[in-house]
Design a protein that fits this description.
Blueprint: E1 13-14, E2 18-24, E3 32-38, H1 57-74, E4 81-86, E5 89-94, E6 112-124, H2 129-136, E7 155-166, H3 177-184, H4 188-212, E8 214-225, E9 231-233, E10 243-247, E11 264-265, E12 276-277, H5 282-291, H6 294-304, H7 320-338, H8 348-362
Parallel strand pairs: 11-12
Antiparallel strand pairs: 1-2, 2-3, 3-5, 4-5, 6-7, 6-8, 8-9, 8-10
C-alpha cells in the first residue's frame, strides 16, 4: 500500500459517505487523480449525511471495494481504481463531472462522468424502490419479466433486471432507457457496453455471494469515459452501501429460494426467527421507518418540491446500540466477502444474530 499522506490534499467535496480530495485536476484532454476517502458516515432516503458515525465503516467499505476492483479488472472491466493509499482511502482516476441539464454533452465524448446510475435487481423486497414503483404504477410488472402483479414480497425475478436513474439531479429519477440514453448523449454501443459491464459485475457478486451465503438483492454502479473515450467503472462496486442483500447460508442458485417461503426481517414489521436480515444500511432505514415512519415521506415530498438537503427535517438521534451492531456487521461482511480477517469482530452470522435479537427486543411490531 502506497501511504500517501491523505491529509496533505484538502477536501474539495464532502459527500454523504466519501470525501473527495483532488491530487491533480482533470483537464479537457487528460484525467486527473483523486483520493476517495471513505468516511464512517451514513446516508439514507436521499437525505444526505446523517448525524452519527459508524466505527470502521469507511475502512471496511474501502477494504471490500479494493478487493472487488481487482477481481473485476481481472474479468476485463476497466475501473477508476489505481491503488489503496490508506486504510480508508484509494487513489483513483479523476474525470470531469458535467450536469447534462446545463451542458450539451453530445460532443464531449471523453474524460467525463456518465450521468446515469445503473442498477441490477434480482430480488424485489417490500422495502425496495422497485416495489414502491410497482405499487404506484410507474413500473410495470412485465418489465421485470413477471406475468402478473406481485401480491407478496420478496419476489425472485426470472432473470436480472437492469434499471437506471438520473445521477446529478436533486433526487434520483427512474426514467425509461431511451430518456436516460438521451440525457447521457450516449450511443447504442455505449449503452450495450454498460449493460455488459454491470451484468458481469452482478454475476461476480452472485458467485461470491453463493460462496459466503449472502444474497445480493440489488446493487448500483456508475460509469465514466476515460481520456480515450472508453467506458470504465467509476463507483465503489458491491460494497455494503451500494447493495441490499441478506445472509442466508449456503446456497447453489437463487432458484433454491424461489418456491419456498422467504421472509426478510424488518424492524417493527417482520420479527420471525427464520427471517433473513437485510445486512446493509437498510438496518438504519428500517430503524427510522419503525420509530418515525412519516419522516421518510416528508423528506421525499420536500425533495420533490425542491427543498435543498440542508433544509430537510432531521430525524431523531440514532440508537447507539444499533450503531455498534451496524459497525460489527459492516466489518464482518468485509471479512467474509474478501476472505481476509482484517477486522477483529465476530463472524457475520453471529453479528447478524445479535442484531436480530436487538431488534426483536427494541421495536414494537405494527
Amino acid at each position: 500500500m502506497n501511504r500517501l499522506n491523505v491529509k496533505d490534499y484538502p477536501i474539495a467535496e464532502i459527500g454523504s459517505t466519501k470525501n473527495i480530495r483532488p491530487v491533480t485536476k482533470p483537464t479537457d484532454t487528460k484525467m486527473g487523480e483523486v483520493i476517495l476517502e471513505f468516511s464512517d458516515d451514513t446516508s439514507v432516503k436521499d437525505f444526505g449525511k446523517l448525524g452519527f458515525e459508524t466505527e470502521n465503516k469507511g475502512a471496511s467499505m474501502c477494504h471490500t471495494a479494493v478487493y472487488n476492483f481487482k477481481r473485476l479488472e481481472e474479468m476485463g472491466i476497466p475501473t477508476i481504481f489505481k491503488e489503496q493509499v490508506a486504510d480508508n482511502a484509494i487513489l483513483a482516476h479523476y474525470v470531469r463531472v458535467m450536469d447534462p441539464d446545463k451542458i450539451d454533452l453530445s460532443n464531449i465524448r471523453t474524460n467525463r462522468l456518465f450521468p446515469v446510475e445503473v442498477m441490477t435487481r434480482d430480488v424485489i423486497t417490500a422495502t425496495s424502490s422497485a416495489a414502491t414503483r410497482l405499487r404506484e404504477g410507474t413500473l410495470h410488472y412485465a418489465a421485470l419479466g413477471l406475468s402478473e402483479m406481485p401480491t407478496e414480497y420478496p419476489v425472485f425475478l426470472p432473470m436480472t433486471f437492469v434499471d437506471g436513474s438520473t445521477k446529478l439531479r436533486g433526487s434520483d429519477e427512474y426514467l425509461p432507457w431511451d430518456q436516460l440514453k438521451e440525457l447521457a448523449c450516449a450511443t447504442t454501443a455505449e449503452m450495450n457496453q454498460i449493460q455488459k459491464y454491470i451484468l458481469l459485475t452482478t454475476q461476480f457478486g452472485q458467485k461470491r455471494g453463493q460462496e459466503i451465503g449472502f444474497i445480493v438483492f440489488d446493487h448500483k454502479d456508475e460509469y465514466a469515459y476515460d481520456d480515450k473515450g472508453g467506458l470504465m467503472l467509476a463507483d465503489v462496486p458491491l460494497a455494503l452501501d451500494e447493495i441490499t442483500g441478506a445472509l442466508v447460508g449456503p446456497y447453489s442458485d437463487l432458484d433454491d429460494f424461489r418456491n419456498g417461503t422467504f421472509k426478510v426481517f424488518q424492524a417493527g414489521k417482520v420479527h420471525d426467527d427464520d427471517a433473513y436480515v437485510n445486512g446493509s444500511k437498510q438496518l438504519f432505514r428500517d430503524h427510522y421507518d419503525a420509530i418515525i415512519p412519516e419522516w421518510g415521506i416528508v423528506v421525499k415530498k420536500a425533495l420533490d418540491s425542491g427543498v435543498p438537503k440542508d433544509k430537510l427535517p432531521r430525524p431523531p438521534e440514532m440508537n447507539e446500540e444499533l450503531i455498534h451492531l451496524g459497525s460489527q456487521i459492516y466489518q464482518a461482511h468485509s471479512n467474509a466477502w474478501t476472505g481476509e480477517k482484517k477486522f477483529d469482530v465476530l463472524p457475520l452470522e453471529e453479528c447478524v444474530a445479535a442484531y436480530k435479537t436487538f431488534a426483536q427486543n427494541t421495536y414494537e411490531l405494527r
